[in-house]
Design goal:
heterodimer, A: 333 residues, mainly alpha, Formate dehydrogenase/DMSO reductase fold, 13 helices, globular, B: mainly alpha, 2 domains
């Protein structure tokens, strides 16, 4: 007699009926990834436009943050793995049709300019902080790092190579930062079993959101009026693009298959409606946009308020998308 | 000079009161509830407690009625969104008048620390009081009187009468 073991495909905890695998750390990682992409994008873009001397904060000081938050994001990512000790295997494989593989490699490669760039500018950054905040404790820390790093001949050699090819490196890094920003969205949209995520607009949407949070952080950190004004304008434009993408995402879902219609309904009457439209669209996009318009119109507004709101909106956006996407699925009618 | 004059400009209080009244009618019309502020804070407390320890919230008398249903979402109430709107509106209105800045409003004779401790203690008493009285100045008195409820009128007499009676002892905090 042949025995047969029948395993039902339905009994898969944490996957059916809803995916329950990714929590806060993943959302936070996507946020940090997008934010870092934004910071690196602006540093390289304005460097290439020849603004090194007028936009010191953007080009020289703020990039210090990028490698730190990428590292925090990667720690969160490793902490989320079931087999933590095997994380290095991602770096031994290249799989062209896996966005995770693309992301792992992009992060690896972008980490090099992300670290070298701010280290190269560290003396100027220290000067900048000394002028604006002479009592800051960061000065001591940065000076120590600067002196420590410049002891090694190999690093001085790296700086020399960097200096020679900076323009080329900036072009490459600019390109990589866009890939990094898009990847945070593509990572989700590659899940064809989750109808909410499985839309091509998620990549550009996450990229825009990431760059917008980057601009917001630069508005917050900078105290140069021209720089703030420039980024306020840019941020307004990015918010408009983001709203456009969000509306089109839902229009696309409404016009899609039944699974996508259901996924869209999570935000148009379903459990995520209030939290999405109030915190992300209302408090995270429209309200800061109003404040920025008022500020550009000449009213005195503390710039950190819209900047803080945009950052929190970006964070909430990722938490909601990660959570709602896992909730959406193909229901068998 | 122009900005200085603008910064002193506040809305006419009678006009502002009229607008609040219209907002009250709109609130009753659209949400079937009046305006309030303590209720929103209470909801946030209930939702936080529920999220951290659902069993405790279920067993405790005060929280019980808000979290008894399995799918209840205490945070999803009109007052929470109203409070978000209040903050958003306050920021916009203050920035139009050029008054938007962080500061501690106090009498020049007391320190910031005294002011903050006094404000915190007052806030705690306010929180306890509103729950005993089932509402604060806006929820109990304004919304209550808007529907001609007797408790609203009693609340009005109690809150302002109590305020006048106690104010003498705490006058040093302000003058």
């Amino acid at each position: 007699m042949n025995e047969q073991i029948f395993v039902s495909g339905k009994n898969i905890p944490e996957i059916i009926p809803n995916l329950e695998l990714w929590g806060g750390p993943i959302a936070l990682y996507l946020f940090f990834g997008g934010l870092a992409a934004g910071i690196i994008f602006f540093a390289n873009y304005f460097y290439l436009r020849g603004r090194s001397n007028t936009m010191v904060m953007t080009i020289k000081v703020a990039p210090i943050i990028a490698p730190i938050i990428i590292a925090i994001g990667l720690i969160l990512l490793v902490a989320d793995l079931n087999h933590k000790l095997y994380f290095w295997q991602l770096f031994l494989h290249i799989r062209m049709n896996s966005p995770m593989s693309w992301g792992a490699w992009t992060l690896t490669v972008i980490m090099i300019p992300a670290i070298v760039w701010p280290l190269y500018y560290l003396p100027e950054s220290i000067e900048y902080i000394k002028q604006r905040a002479p009592k800051s404790k960061l000065i001591g820390l940065f000076s120590w790092i600067n002196n420590f790093v410049r002891q090694f001949k190999i690093i001085l050699w790296i700086f020399k190579v960097f200096e020679k090819n900076q323009k080329l490196i900036a072009y490459l890094t600019l390109y990589l930062s866009v890939i990094l920003g898009v990847y945070t969205g593509i990572l989700l949209s590659a899940f064809n079993a989750r109808p909410l995520w499985n839309t091509a607009i998620l990549g550009p949407l996450f990229l825009t959101s990431g760059i917008s949070t980057g601009a917001a952080l630069l508005i917050w950190l900078s105290n140069d009026h021209k720089e703030i004004k420039k980024f306020s304008r840019l941020d307004l434009f990015l918010i408009a693009v983001e709203l456009f993408f969000i509306i089109h995402m839902f229009m696309g879902m409404k016009a899609g298959s039944i699974a996508q219609v259901e996924a869209g309904l999570l935000f148009l009457g379903g459990p995520y409606t209030a939290v999405f439209w109030v915190t992300v669209v209302g408090l995270g996009l429209i309200f800061p946009a109003i404040l920025e318009i008022m500020e550009l119109g000449g009213l005195k507004i503390s710039v950190w308020i819209p900047a803080f709101l945009v950052l929190m909106g970006g964070l909430a956006f990722r938490f909601i998308m990660v959570s709602a996407g896992q909730f959406s699925s193909y229901h068998i009618i | 000079m122009e900005t200085l004059e603008r910064s002193k400009r506040y809305m006419n209080p009678y006009l502002a009161g009229l607008i609040i009244g219209i907002a009250m009618i709109a609130a009753y019309y659209f949400s079937a509830e009046g305006l309030g502020s303590s209720g929103g804070f209470k909801t946030v407390v209930v939702a936080t407690t529920n999220a951290i320890n659902h069993d405790y919230a279920k067993k405790t008398k005060f929280f019980e009625s808000y979290v008894s249903e399995p799918e209840s979402r205490p945070i999803k109430t009109w007052l929470v969104f109203e409070l978000i709107g209040v903050m958003v509106g306050a920021i916009i209105s203050a920035s139009i008048a050029g008054r938007l800045k962080i500061g501690i409003g106090k009498s020049p004779k007391i320190t910031n620390k005294t002011r903050l401790i006094a404000a915190l203690s007052g806030g705690i008493l306010w929180g306890v009081g509103t729950q005993l009285g089932r509402g604060c100045t806006s929820g109990l008195i304004m919304s209550g009187m808007a529907v001609n409820s007797l408790s609203g009128y009693i609340g009005l007499a109690a809150v302002f009468g109590g305020g006048y009676a106690i104010a003498y002892f705490f006058r040093k905090l302000w003058i």
